[in-house]
Fold this protein.
Amino acid sequence: MTKPKVFVTREIPDKGLDLVKEFCDADIWPHEIPPARAELVARVRDVDGLLSMLTEKVDAELMDAAPRLKVISNFAVGVDNVDVPAATARKIPVGNTPGVLTDATADMAFALLMSAARRVTEGERYVRAGKWKTWSPQFLLGADFAGATLGIIGFGRIGQAVAKRAQGFDLRVIYFDPSSQPAFGATPVDLDALLHESDFISLHVPLTEETRHMINAGALSKMKPNAVLVNTARGPVVDPQALYAALKSKQIFAAALDVTEPEPLPVDSPLLELDNCIIIPHLGSASKHTRDMMSLLAAQNLIAGLKGEQLPNCVNKKVYY
Ligand code: DGY
């Protein structure tokens, strides 16, 4: 029996890739840099399934270039790189990888928060630059955690996992998310109250038209001068120009970004000139077990779609009604 054809846009961990290879005739992009748009369009022409990364724009044009496409399996929980309504209109189910990356991403949010608040990367750069001459009573002073207020914007799985971690640090936790119930001792508040009251703010919303540049000049102006902003959600949730201005003028204390607008961040980005801004290259889910499990979920979604079965994790279940 001929196997269904699929394009896998990067080498994912073997845990999932072995399954894909067993069930499919798989074209696997072997390079670290993603396929350019023209290459991507060419590779999907006769495929039944696509296993994409968040680096690929899976839009209506790409779907129309793949007339046999039966399933899109995105190797991420976020699906803002996929035009989901366009897929739904074409009856193509879209899969994602929720749950398995919750702890890894919450861990990273906390690591970034602590690093920015306690100036870890600044200190490290100082030592490497050979500037460490003595111990000083007033040098590189950071923020205290016990008794401080952590504001979480977006209180889904990952936001709640951050709240759970905050309990161990004696933080008061407030959150803004009209669709979530309180958990882990966190109190719901409106967005303005969160911006005004928080010493630390961590973002956990998906990227949508409502959340794009949600953290803009207006929002930053409501934050405390000691505020630390952490973004492990999606880069465009924060307006980078407004953030630069707020950090440069010390309107807020610091920011730590796992995600940026755009990605990758150009080396001449003004944000990279700032000592009070930590930037890492979208590593929230980058732990061995997490990526193994993401690859497994992505493979299971892909194969279910190829078999005409409901995807275990489908973001547009409407395609089945
Ligand atoms: C996701 O899954 O959406 C993360 O951003 C990448 O792991």
Summary: The CA atoms of residues 125 and 179 lie 41 Å apart. DSSP finds eleven helices and twelve strands in the chain. Residues 54, 76-78, 101, 284-285 surround (2R)-2,3-dihydroxypropanoic acid (CB under 6 Å). The first strand starts at residue 5 and ends at 8.
